[in-house]
Amino acid sequence: MNISRTVSRAATAAALAAALSVGAIQSAASASPVERAGTARTVNAPASTPVFAPVFKAPLDDGGWTGDGLSLNAADNAKVDAFIDRAKKAERSISPQVRTAALISGAKLIGFDHRLKSADSLKRKVATSLLEHPERNVNDALAGINDSVRYTLQWPDGRYTEGVALAASVLSEWGNDNTKWSNTWGRAKGYKAINSGWRAPRSEHLFEVQFHTPASKHAQEVTHKLYEEQRLPGTSPERAKELQAQQDALFAAVPVPPGADGLTAPAPRVPRLPQPSLRPQPVG
């Protein structure tokens, strides 16, 4: 190893460091107090170039959820996830009944692969509910959701009215309690179809069955994105009004099947009375 070369390099480095230090100190001394304060951390570099660039780290995942300008904290998100798990379990006993009701009534079962509402869609719905109703908590919002499990039955116009009545009757006879019956065939504007809500007897989980014709289902699919945008919290009132007008125009072209506007929910089932015991009763 060449010791003299090593010593020479060390001496050169020391001299260079000293020169830079002296120059920086002289510059700082000639600056005003304010300038000296502003350059205290960047003695060996121009004032416009920081020595240490800031490091930005992505926020840690705290277990919450965000999407479309909406959010859920970690605790609320965990409750929604648990609700989704319950929906998946309930669907296993609900689907066979809905499929059979469709078969008996001659309906076409539409979109069966999407019978479970997606996690993001469900969380958007819960977050929107909490935003619009600050007095509610996540349990209140979840209690109002009846479409985490959902189905669509479709008939041609000529068989629609009879098919709906039969399918609804079958579901009711199997012990599903009707919780909602929204028949919008008679309205002048907007969505046209029947949206029905039910409570499954085993799990007591709420589910939805929509009753459509081919034309009403097509209009629903075309207007779905318009409806989703209309529901976003950032949509202005002017834009929401414009979106509603577009939806109204599309549904206005949907024919109303004969008698569809008069369809009502099945009558509530009469609860079975307890049967008297046949065992001999003790005397005295």
Description:
The strands form two sheets. The chain has a five-stranded mixed beta sheet with strand order 3-4-7-6-5. It is globular. A hairpin with a 6-residue loop joins strand 6 (194-199) and strand 7. It has helices at residues 3-30, 33-38, 74-105, 119-132, 138-143, 157-173, 214-231, 237-252, and strands at residues 65-67, 70-72, 108-110, 150-154, 177-183, 194-199, 206-212. The longest helix is centred in the N-terminal third of the chain and has 32 residues, at 74-105. The chain contains eight helices and seven strands. The protein is an alpha+beta fold and 284 residues long.
Q: What structural class do you assign from the helix and strand content?
A: alpha+beta
* Strand adjacency order, main sheet: 3-4-7-6-5
Question: What's the shape?
Answer: globular
Q: Looking at the chains present, what oligomeric state does this protein adopt?
A: single chain
- Helical content stands at 40-55%
What is the succession of H and E elements?
A: HHEEHEHHEHEEEHH
- Tell me, rounded to a whole number, the average pLDDT: 80
What does the radius of gyration come to? 34 Å
Record field, number of beta strands: 7
Major β-sheet annotation: 5 strands, mixed
Keywords: Signal
Protein name: ATP nucleotide 3'-pyrophosphokinase
